[in-house]
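TASK: fixed-backbone design
INPUT:
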């Protein structure tokens, strides 16, 4: 069984019971263990900032390491206003001190956004307006355009847990307008239950900080989380993150401008008309959320379905022709497609796009074959329990 060590703000009364609830039904998978560090107030001043100094965190981390935990997480969102580098340095220091992999709530939220390709993020926070605006600035530096719901205006950390869950739900709904996802940024707010319930209504992921921290800790410890009943991140986030990694590595290896993966995997909320992942070169337009085409009826996809081998197109002068929108709207001039065949079904395919005509070398085709193998491995690891 995996042991998760969590550094907890001393005045937090939410994250421990919520974490236990999230792990209920997966007790053979992992156990959670907590050490507290003094945190009572959230503000933009030296006194508040001092609560998040490294040494108290490291002292608590050393205590957790005595329990031989497999991962240590700072279960607090202070990096969201102190700066992401603060948390990166903290995680590195914890690992250097204890030899245990480490993460934080802020790093987990950013990793969740990366896994789902989020660039427009709604924020639901309990803090004062100046702290909330600092979070917007911090996340903007990480490539996230944030829409901020009206903050609750609270600075007493213990009081965050007294905010009714119904109020948190309304704040999430307010933050969701025109967003790819919503993040509840605070680990002492009861957002996990509301987040999981609202995903279906809103049609977008909702990343609660407590849930995201547990997800990333499990993933970092190698637990392959695929837990039902608590929202998409715990069910499918690690699978999606794996897809992103495969596509990013493929794009670099093959020299493509864009790589995408499309899959029919209903148990993970995936269907081929929207991509399961996408990696982009600098300045290349995203195709991730364009659902304007019936993908299964495209000439190129029907060709893949018939032949079940890679389709190599150094140009588009020969059949099968791709959709004209791919050329006119997205500027694609060459592509390499490879099917993902599970048992007897073509579950999906990987696409590599070039904005200029080009030959696809044997090395590039080998990289595509390796990427397909990696997708199969991910589906075997994470996807079987939820396949159709």
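OUTPUT:
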């Amino acid at each position: 069984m995996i042991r998760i060590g969590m550094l907890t703000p001393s005045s937090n009364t939410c994250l421990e019971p919520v974490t236990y609830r999230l792990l209920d039904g997966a007790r053979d998978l992992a156990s959670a263990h907590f050490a507290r560090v003094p945190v009572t107030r959230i503000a933009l001043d030296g006194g508040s900032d001092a609560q998040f100094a490294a040494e108290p965190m490291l002292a608590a981390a050393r205590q957790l390491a005595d329990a031989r935990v497999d991962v240590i997480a700072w279960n607090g969102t202070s990096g969201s206003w102190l700066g992401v580098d603060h948390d990166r340095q903290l995680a590195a220091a914890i690992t250097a001190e204890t030899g245990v992999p480490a993460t934080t709530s802020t790093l987990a939220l950013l990793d969740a956004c990366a896994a789902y390709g989020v660039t427009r993020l709604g924020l639901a926070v309990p803090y004062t307006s100046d702290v909330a605006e600092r979070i917007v600035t911090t996340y903007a530096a990480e490539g996230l355009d944030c829409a901020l719901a009206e903050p609750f205006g609270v600075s007493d950390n213990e009081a965050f847990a007294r905010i009714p869950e119904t109020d948190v739900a309304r704040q999430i709904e307010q933050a969701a307008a025109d967003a790819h996802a919503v993040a509840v940024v605070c680990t002492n707010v009861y957002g996990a239950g509301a987040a999981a319930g609202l995903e279906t209504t809103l049609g977008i992921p909702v990343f609660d900080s407590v849930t995201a921290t547990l997800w990333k800790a499990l993933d970092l410890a190698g637990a392959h989380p695929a837990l039902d009943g608590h929202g998409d991140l715990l069910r499918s986030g690690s699978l999606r993150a794996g897809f992103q990694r495969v596509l990013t590595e493929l794009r670099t290896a093959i020299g493509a401008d864009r790589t995408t993966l499309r899959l029919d995997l209903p148990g993970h909320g995936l269907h081929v008309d929207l991509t399961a992942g996408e990696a982009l070169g600098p300045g290349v337009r995203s195709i991730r959320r364009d659902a304007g085409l019936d993908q299964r009826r495209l000439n190129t996809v029907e060709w893949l379905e018939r032949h079940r081998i890679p389709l190599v197109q150094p140009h588009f002068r020969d059949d099968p022709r791709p959709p004209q929108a791919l050329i006119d709207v997205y500027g694609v001039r060459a592509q390499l497609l490879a099917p993902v065949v599970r048992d007897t079904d073509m579950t999906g395919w990987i696409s590599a796009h070039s904005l200029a005509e080009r030959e696809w070398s044997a090395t590039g085709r080998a990289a595509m074959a390796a990427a397909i193998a990696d997708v199969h491995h991910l589906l075997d690891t994470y996807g079987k329990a939820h396949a159709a």
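COMMENT: The chain has a mean pLDDT of 95.
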